């Protein structure tokens, strides 16, 4: 219950936010409203015309030309109504789509500024739901709901005034059931809304499940788990159907009820009004006009519930969106804008991921001169990826721990830091576009020769040329499927394309064979000799040639030095090296054994 009250309070300020969005388009909206008023006035005149026609018929004064005139008048009124109805819909719906577009753009722009930490803690599915459902709800609230509210108030007020002017007693009598309709609408509206939300929730669980199963289809098949997945899915589908039926049931009950109430109004009119006609208190024409006015009142009564509902939903959605839009990017610019030397220094760095308890890095210190190479090895989960992501400020290190060219990175502009780095993350991600566009991701204007040169450095130029469309071959769903090693090499070329000062390879050669790897590393060293690089690897051969090697374990640097020094040290590194040597020998033996025809 407490949550409910909290939401009510938020609703009002969110409603103000909705209105503010609408006011940005006040010109179009007010034009739309003027057109709407014109439509309403025309609608109010029509019964008057009928009243005249019927009265003249009843009194026997009707002539053919008079009736023709009235027929034409009614036609003209409907024509004008049609034109202005189009006009207000065009204006209002147009503005609401413009509000929709602005909101989408704002949301997208803002989401781009948020840090990886935000995405660690937020489900992408939720963000997608905001981008679709919430924005739709806001659009409906500011567009149709606002206009309907205005229409309902204007139309019902003027109708009631006309009715009272015609006959106040009859007005009071026949309007008795109407407040009940409005009340029912409000009550049922809430219930319908709640059921509608359950339907949406069930549906989003269902889609989420489908998405997950389809993306993980390889794993499911490999484990032969199709059947249990299927059962799970059909449970969700069943739930979705059940929620939909619950909603349909209440609709089915509710609509005839409203219809019945509206008919009660008509019945009262028929009884009381009929008697008045017989007594001659009102004319037949007045009776007919009165009944059409009464009919016009049912819609505003029903609209009230609908509008309140749309507004509530819109306000709740606006509130959710506003919460994202006001999430400050937790990683922000520092004041300094100078060009730092690409030398890295880390002093006593401790780090715990925000929102977690376990300390991931402890007292990490090292320095790397410009043009130098740092190799990092260590057990899985020892903090290697965390360390390099801190250097780029993808997460925020504590102040006074990470320095680029002697400057604390917390005081530097983010764009400056990021432009210095070329990063190849551990999990290769290529976009569904051509290979050329993937490499030229950061700068679309890179000439083709340059792309080819970069591809040659990472030893993939020849393979790309063999694809059906060469560099223009699409990657992913609509194109080729690259092998793990091919993806990694394209990703390295993409990192090189930004002409980085510091290249960071996080296990980025793990799927490439040792020989190719050695060739690539050699070429990197020769072609881009000024490049400072940080290379994370599990294979010692990858980092063997580095100027400085740091061995990590459980968040600490436990050993460091050159390859030779570390071997002499006879610690973790030396053990790892010997083990990998043995593995390699064993593999060679296997291979030669096979070649000799398996004589043993
Ligand atoms: N985004 C995150 N939020 C919270 N904890 C994280 C996050 N990323 C990593 N961790 C934790 O930090 C620790 C270090 O992870 P990290 O990815 O840095 O290890 P790693 O040395 O790169 O391992 P690997 O060799 O397997 O890539 C792990 O215990 C991991 O669970
Ligand atoms: Mg890692």
Quantity of strands, as a count = 10
Give the N-to-C terminal Cα separation. 78 Å
Report the average pLDDT across residues. 87
Rg, nearest Å? 36 Å
Strand arrangement in the largest pleated sheet: 6-7-8-3-9-10
Task: Assign the CATH superfamily of the largest domain.
Answer: ABC transporter type 1, transmembrane domain
Principal-axis shape? elongated
CATH C-level label of the largest domain: Mainly Alpha
Succession of helices and strands: HHHHHHHHHHEEEHEEHEHHHHEHEHEEHH
Bound molecules: adenosine-5'-triphosphate, magnesium ion
**Total separate domains:** 3
CATH architecture of the largest domain: Up-down Bundle
Q: What is the CATH T-level topology of the largest domain?
A: ABC transporter transmembrane region fold
How much of the sequence lies in strands comes to: 5-15%
Largest sheet: 6 strands, mixed
């Amino acid at each position: 219950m407490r949550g409910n009250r909290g939401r009510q309070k938020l609703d009002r300020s969110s409603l103000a936010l909705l209105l503010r969005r609408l006011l940005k388009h006040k010109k179009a909206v007010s034009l739309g409203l003027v057109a709407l008023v014109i439509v309403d006035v025309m609608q109010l005149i029509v019964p008057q015309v009928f009243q005249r026609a019927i009265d003249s018929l009843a009194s026997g004064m009707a002539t053919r030309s008079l009736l023709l005139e009235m027929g034409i008048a009614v036609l003209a009124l409907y024509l004008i109504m049609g034109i202005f109805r189009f006009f207000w819909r065009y204006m209002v719906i147009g503005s609401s789509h413009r509000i929709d577009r602005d909101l989408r753009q704002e949301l997208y722009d803002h989401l781009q500024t948020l840090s990886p930490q935000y995405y660690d803690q937020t489900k992408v599915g939720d963000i997608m739901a905001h981008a679709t459902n919430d924005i739709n709800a806001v659009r409906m609230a500011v567009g149709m709901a606002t206009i309907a509210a205005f229409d309902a108030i204007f139309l019902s007020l003027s109708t009631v005034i006309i009715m009272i002017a015609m006959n106040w007693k009859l007005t009071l009598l026949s309007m008795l059931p109407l407040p009940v309709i409005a009340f029912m609408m409000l009550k049922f509206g809430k219930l319908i809304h709640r059921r509608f939300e359950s339907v949406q929730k069930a549906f989003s669980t269902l889609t989420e499940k489908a998405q997950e199963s389809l993306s993980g289809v390889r794993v499911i098949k490999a484990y032969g788990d199709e059947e249990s997945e299927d059962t799970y899915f059909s449970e969700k589908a069943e739930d979705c159907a059940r929620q939909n039926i619950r909603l349909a049931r209440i609709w089915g009950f509710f609509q005839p009820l409203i219809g019945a109430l509206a008919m009660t109004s008509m019945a009262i009119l028929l009884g009381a009004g009929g008697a008045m006609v017989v007594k001659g208190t009102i004319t037949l024409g007045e009776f007919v006009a009165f009944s059409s006015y009464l009919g016009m009142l049912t819609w505003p009564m029903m609209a009230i519930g609908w509008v309140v509902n749309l507004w509530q939903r819109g306000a709740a959605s606006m509130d959710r969106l506003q919460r994202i839009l006001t999430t400050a990017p937790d990683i922000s610019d520092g004041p300094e804008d100078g060009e730092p030397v690409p030398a890295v220094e880390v002093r006593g760095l401790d780090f715990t991921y925000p929102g977690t308890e376990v300390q991931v890095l402890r007292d990490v210190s090292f320095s790397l001169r410009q043009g130098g190479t740092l190799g990092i090895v260590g057990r899985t989960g020892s903090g290697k990826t965390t360390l390099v992501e801190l250097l780029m400020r993808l997460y925020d290190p504590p102040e006074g721990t990470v320095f680029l060219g002697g400057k604390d990175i917390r005081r530097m502009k983010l764009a400056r830091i990021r432009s210095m780095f070329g990063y190849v993350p551990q999990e290769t991600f290529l976009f569904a576009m051509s290979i050329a566009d993937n490499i030229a991701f950061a700068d679309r204007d890179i000439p083709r020769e340059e792309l080819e040169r970069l591809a040659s450095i990472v030893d993939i130029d020849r393979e790309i040329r063999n694809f059906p469309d060469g560099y223009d071959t699409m990657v992913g769903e609509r194109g080729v499927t690259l092998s793990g090693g091919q993806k990694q090499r394209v990703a390295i070329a993409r990192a090189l394309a930004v002409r980085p000062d510091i290249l960071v390879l996080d296990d980025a050669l793990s799927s490439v064979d040792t020989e190719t790897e050695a060739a690539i590393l050699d070429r990197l060293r020769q072609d881009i000799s000024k490049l400072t690089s940080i290379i994370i690897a599990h294979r010692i051969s990858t980092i063997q040639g580095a100027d400085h090697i740091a061995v990590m374990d459980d968040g600490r640097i436990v050993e460091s030095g050159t390859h030779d020094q570390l071997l002499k040290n006879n610690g973790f590194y030396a053990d790892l090296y010997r083990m990998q040597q043995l593995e390699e020998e064993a593999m060679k033996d296997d291979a030669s054994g096979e070649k000799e025809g398996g004589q043993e």
